Structure formats: structure tokens, C-alpha cells
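Q: Sequence in, structure out?
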Amino acid sequence: MKKISFLLTLGLMVSFFSLSMAAEKPRLGVLRFTNHTSAGWWSGSMGSELQDMLAAELSSIGAFQVLERKEIDAVLGEQDLGASGRIDSQTKAKMGKIKGAKYLVAGTVSAFEEQTSGSGGGVSVMGFSVGGKSDKAYMAVDLKVIDTTTGEIVDARTVEASSSSSGLALGANLGIVSGNLGKYEKTPTGKAIRACIMEIAEYLECSLVKGRNDPCMSEYTAKESTRREKTKKSINLE
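A: Exactly. Output:
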């Protein structure tokens, strides 16, 4: 009887552990964005601002554990202060409790286009129009998901978004934008940026949480197929 009881207890423990592991949200770290375009709105801080925007968006949907790597020095400082004995032992930060990321998310702005129209022809300067009206913007981001254990790229996809003065192609609201990007908040450029960030977050939820067999992946597969066909048609091989 003791042996049977032990086996039953062991089985329950294994089942509980398996369920706990299955229920754990994927741990993500977001890297600083890079830029391969000549977009006028890009400046030295934009990579970090896009990194912050994506981290906040991923955190807001509640499907991931988003690990803040930019503030890691402050976290380590708090732990060191706790270890010094100058902080109440009941409230001090515990050493060795920083979680590691399972995946790192990297984004590169690979395409950006802006169309300006209106009286006087208009000239686009730093995302704003002089003598005209900036009414359309298109942006593409090459996304990579890297396994931190193996260094392998486990997922890669190009995410696109376009916007106009009257709204977003994805039908989303812009939300709050801070830093240098804040001045583009109500422009087509800002809307296209926000739309790309939202699309990336939703795609990662589909890919890493719901799984590749979920119906949501069919939508992204269709988008990717359409994007590839458009790209092929735009290439002149003569």
C-alpha cells in the first residue's frame, strides 16, 4: 500500500509540475531596433524608443513575461543594496532571482515610404510636410525570434503596416507615444509605426503562445504569401 501511495503521489507531483510548466508564459527580452532605411524620422534614440514600445505592447496583452533588460543595472543595484544589510530583511530584493529570457526579439525597419499630396506639391521633411499634406505612410519590419539557449533563429517574418491621414490599415488607434516619436503621434508615420508594433505583438502571441497549428497562423501565412507575391512583381530582373 505504501508503494502504491508513493507512486500515486509521485504521479500527481509530475502532473502538477507538467501543468505548471505548460501554463508558464514565454519569457521574452526585446532588443533595440535597427534601421536599414533612409527614413527621415529615424534618429539615434529611435531604436530604443521602438524597443520600449514593443516591450510595453507585449506586456499589455498579458501573454508573455516581458523581461526589462534596459534597467538591469538598477535591478542589480537594488539587490546589492539589499545584500549590504542596510535594508529590512523582510522587504529587500532577493539575490539570484532575476529571470532569464527564453527568447530574444529583434526588429529591423527594412522599408519605409511616405506619400505627400496637396496644394503646392509639398515636400516631406522629417516626417512632416511643408506646402503640402502628408497623407500616406508604409512601413515594414523584419522580425527575428532567437532562442537564447541555442542561439538559433526559431522564427522570422516581415510585418507590414500602412496608414493614412484618416486612419490605419489595421484599423487600430495610435495610443500614447513618448520621446522623439511623440511628435509623429498624429501623423501617418506615427500611425504606421504603432500599427507595426501592434502587429508584431499579435503575431508573437499567435506563434509562441497559441502555436503554429492555431487558426490564427493561417491569417499570417496568407499575409506573408501576399507580401512575397507583391515583392516578386516589383522586382525587374532584366
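Residues 25-232 form a domain with the Rossmann fold fold (CATH 3.40.50).
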